[in-house]
Amino acid sequence: MVKIENLSKTFTTKDGKQIQALEDINMVIAEGEIFGIIGRSGAGKSTLVRCINMLERPTTGRVIIDGRDLTAYSDRQLRRARQQIGMIFQHFNLFSARNVAGNVAFPLEIAGQPRRVIQEKVKRSLALVGLSDKAGHYPAELSGGQKQRVGIARALASEPRLLLCDEPTSALDPQTTASILSLLRDINKSLGLTIIIITHEMQVIKEICDRVAVLNQGRIVEAGSVLDIFTAPRHPVTRELIKSVLDPSIPEQVLAGYNPAGTSLLVRLSFIGQSAGEPVISRMIHEYNVQANILYGKIDHIKDTPFGTLTLELSGQPDALNAAVAFLQGKQLSIEVLERP
Amino acid sequence: MSNWFDQIIPMVTMGTLETLYMVFLAVFIAYLFGLPLGVILLITSEKHIKPCPPINSILGTIINIGRSFPFIILLIAIIPFTRLVVGTFIGTTASIVPLSVGAIPFVARLVETSLRDIPWGVIEAAQSMGASPWQIIIRVMLPEATPSLVSGFVLTTITLIGYSAMAGVVGGGGLGTLAYQYGFQRYQNDVMVITVVILIILVQIIQVVGDRIVARLSRR
């Protein structure tokens, strides 16, 4: 659906300095998926999403959407293409002089659609985001969450197949964030819409994304399925970002009560999806003659997949401990032997 | 007292009407040219929807030169031009020329400032939906800036009432001429006082009505 090839963007400042905002970006986004791009502020996320619909022209590289190379397009062709790409923003960017219906009608008006069609589509779009009763209100009269819903309705009015989201929930409180994310997820499912989300919040990625790319200093440092990235992050930036939502460290109180005696190991097990079904721990205890003391555990959800971590203290003979760890490694779960505190 | 009814009231009424005629026509002409110039000034600036540095700097310079002319100097300096357009440089219709010319750069800057206040994200949103620069100007920038544009319109009108009195001193007609010829040259203090009172009332009415309209238009 979207293919970005060797994309770079360099800005020239007033005093002639070159600033490389994006460097050699490559990614392929499949039809119907929710793709997240995460990074700290200043990583180049906003520039990257603006390069996709050419609000910023890339310095080099290509952006191919549905087989059409947008970088080769003239301004006029681009305007046409943009009518098929929706976009929503952190600060909503609604037209304050137009009421809700007027905002949603805007993309249809500029595309020159007849009035009756516009009315029809505005109605449908507002129903989709659950704001049919607010058609006559002005943006200033709405809450943040409602404004973003109008933004979504406006972006969807012209029935695009791709939706770009630039920090869609960063100006919203956690509860509103959740409702906007579930709305995005619903429209992704019901319309088969491809969604690209830019964010600095790992929570957003965790809730709704299928795949994610981690952007740092203008480069993609890591990319893959959200589950893989969360369970086995490789880059320090990724680890740091994940920590904010899935803190794997053991709480202080637990460690305070931990008193190692004899030969023992501290291990952390991560269970993903199906593997949570097998009684691994109990088999390990039976077969390898080790004791397991559960120190800490929790279960999270990454999109729809349950993801659990369990921190155990294993005690027994050194040989038995090694064999037990080898047994666990053979299972479909990830195991990490932790340093002694 | 009969002097009042026979002379002063008709004179003052005539003067007021002349002032209104001059000012409103001049404001109209000033916006006819100033509004597009203000739009061009903004959109040709760096990183706007139609960046064009040469046009922007040339236009900016011309407007600054226009604005640095004291009105009383402009009034006299463009007499040849006024003659060319109207045929004479004396009288109310002739005054409209310097009033308009003097107000065009003022209006252009006011319009530019009003439009510049629109959050860039709103314009970017319109671009992301495939709007052309023309559509952005007509359907986004002007409607979004309407309250601020109306405030500017009120300011321009009031400023031109002041300027029109200056034009009156050099034979432009209206309340200015009245105050100068009767109030100053013939020591008729009552005429002087009444013209000042009428000017105050005019300005008040325009400001109050303008503020109401702005308040009604504001949606932010």
UniProtKB/TrEMBL annotation, chain A:
GO CC aspect terms: plasma membrane
Keyword Manganese: no
Broad EC category: hydrolase
PROSITE patterns recorded: ABC_TRANSPORTER_1, ABC_TRANSPORTER_2
Database matches in SUPFAM superfamilies: ACT-like, P-loop containing nucleoside triphosphate hydrolases
Superkingdom per UniProt: Bacteria
GO molecular function terms attached to this record: ATP binding; ATP hydrolysis activity
One GO-annotated biological process of the protein: amino acid transport
InterPro entries referenced in this protein's UniProt entry, alphabetically: AAA+_ATPase, ABC_transporter-like_ATP-bd, ABC_transporter-like_CS, ACT-like_dom_sf, MetN_ABC, MetN_ABC_transporter-like, NIL_domain, P-loop_NTPase
Residue ranges occupied by any ABC transporter domain in the UniProt entry: 2-242
EC number(s) on file: 3.6.3.-
Keywords, ordered alphabetically: Amino-acid transport, ATP-binding, Cell membrane, Hydrolase, Membrane, Nucleotide-binding, Translocase, Transport
Gene3D superfamilies: 3.30.70.260, P-loop containing nucleotide triphosphate hydrolases (3.40.50.300)
Family as reported in the entry's similarity comment: Belongs to the ABC transporter superfamily.
Protein's name according to its UniProt entry: Methionine import ATP-binding protein MetN
Provenance organism: Neomoorella thermoacetica (Clostridium thermoaceticum)
Gene: metN
From TrEMBL, chain B:
Gene3D superfamilies, per database record: MetI-like (1.10.3720.10)
Transmembrane feature ranges: 20-43, 55-79, 85-108, 149-171, 191-210
Superkingdom of the source species: Bacteria
Keywords: Cell membrane, Membrane, Transmembrane, Transmembrane helix, Transport
InterPro entries assigned: AA_ABC_Transporter_Permease, MetI-like, MetI-like_sf
GO biological process: D-methionine transmembrane transport
Membrane topology of the entry: Multi-pass membrane protein
Subcellular location: Cell membrane
Record family assignment: Belongs to the binding-protein-dependent transport system permease family. CysTW subfamily.
Name of this protein: D-methionine transport system permease protein MetI
Organism: Neomoorella thermoacetica (Clostridium thermoaceticum)
